[in-house]
Recover the amino acids of this structure.
């Protein structure tokens, strides 16, 4: 399958077959670590990495991936480049495009990564926006498959905020035929346009998408229980109010007792210690560090397919 030149703004733009291909490529690269280090498929290619927000996993996995594939990555914090000082997204894109072979961007507004792509002649990869986090979901799907086998028919329960990670999981799960139940406090449900899209994909794959305010109902018989911080980057001023509203949505041992006994617990990290108890986070069911490691293998597949081909 040829994905050369493609951008990844949201998993919406990828078919189930293309997602399947990226997951298989991730597995291949993970298993054959020495081969790609030897062949250096991205030799001579450069990736510009714009970061308007902080990052551990996304930055390190991408930088290491470019190094492993024989290419070069430039870290462009918006505190350092002119984008943070008033130069427009449109001009930033038109300049970078003439110098680099790919752009990865972590932005506040999803519209900004869309605009970067609009003016770019090279692949643009969304490294998290306020709406989506597609790279995370490729790593999540790989992790689920490694621990649970076939994705189709599994039940994933999301408990917490209807945020960027939740949105991308809705799209990814629905496309891969996974059932997903989302439990949030009232007013924090995922946006209706995302839910509608997920339900449309689910209709095609036979998956079930449920949006509820009932955490127990969501977690009952789940194969996978997932949460994320209740306070995303950029929402710091709302922290006190949100933490109060999310009190009944903390992933506790009492809550996960409703899941299947061999359920896995996932969290994209960073763990802020409010959204799940230490007992759940550190339990034998927790696969959060496998999930973090898979950020490397999946971004390597994305970069190799989009930039190398
Ligand atoms: N999960 C994730 O994207 O982590 P970082 O914010 O550290 O990149
Ligand atoms: N929802 C979180 C994810 C961090 C990886 C945020 O946007 O801050």
């Amino acid at each position: 399958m040829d994905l050369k030149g493609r951008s990844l703004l949201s998993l919406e733009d990828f078919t189930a077959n293309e997602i399947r291909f990226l997951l298989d490529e991730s597995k291949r690269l993970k298993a054959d670590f020495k081969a790609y280090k030897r062949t250096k498929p991205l030799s001579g290619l450069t990736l510009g990495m714009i970061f308007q927000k902080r990052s551990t996993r996304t930055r390190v996995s991408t930088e290491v991936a470019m190094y492993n594939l024989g290419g070069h990555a430039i870290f462009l914090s918006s505190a350092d480049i002119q984008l943070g000082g008033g130069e427009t997204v449109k001009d930033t894109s038109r300049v970078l495009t003439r110098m680099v072979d790919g752009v990865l961007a972590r932005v506040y507004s999803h519209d900004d990564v869309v605009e970067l792509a609009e003016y770019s002649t090279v692949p643009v990869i969304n490294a998290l926006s306020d709406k989506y986090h597609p790279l995370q979901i490729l790593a999540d799907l790989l992790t689920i498959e490694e621990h649970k086998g076939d994705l189709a028919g599994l039940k994933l329960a999301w408990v917490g905020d209807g945020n960027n990670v939740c949105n991308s999981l809705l799209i990814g799960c629905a496309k891969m035929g996974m059932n997903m139940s989302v439990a949030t406090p009232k007013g924090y449900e995922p946006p209706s346009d995302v839910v509608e899209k997920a339900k449309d994909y689910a209709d095609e794959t036979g998956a079930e998408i449920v949006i509820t305010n009932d955490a127990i109902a969501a977690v009952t018989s789940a194969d996978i229980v997932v949460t994320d911080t209740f306070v995303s980057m950029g929402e710091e001023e709302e922290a006190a109010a949100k933490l109060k509203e999310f009190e009944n949505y903390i992933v506790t041992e009492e809550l996960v007792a409703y899941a299947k006994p061999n359920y896995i617990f996932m969290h994209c990290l960073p763990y802020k210690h409010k959204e799940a108890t230490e007992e759940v986070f550190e339990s034998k069911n927790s696969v959060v560090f496998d999930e973090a490691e898979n950020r490397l293998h999946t971004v390597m597949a994305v970069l190799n397919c989009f930039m190398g081909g």
The two ends are 9 Å apart (CA to CA). The CA atoms of residues 48 and 277 lie 37 Å apart. The pocket of norvaline (ligand 2) is lined by residues 128, 163-165, 228-229, 232-233, 268 (CB under 6 Å). The first helix runs from residue 16 to 31.
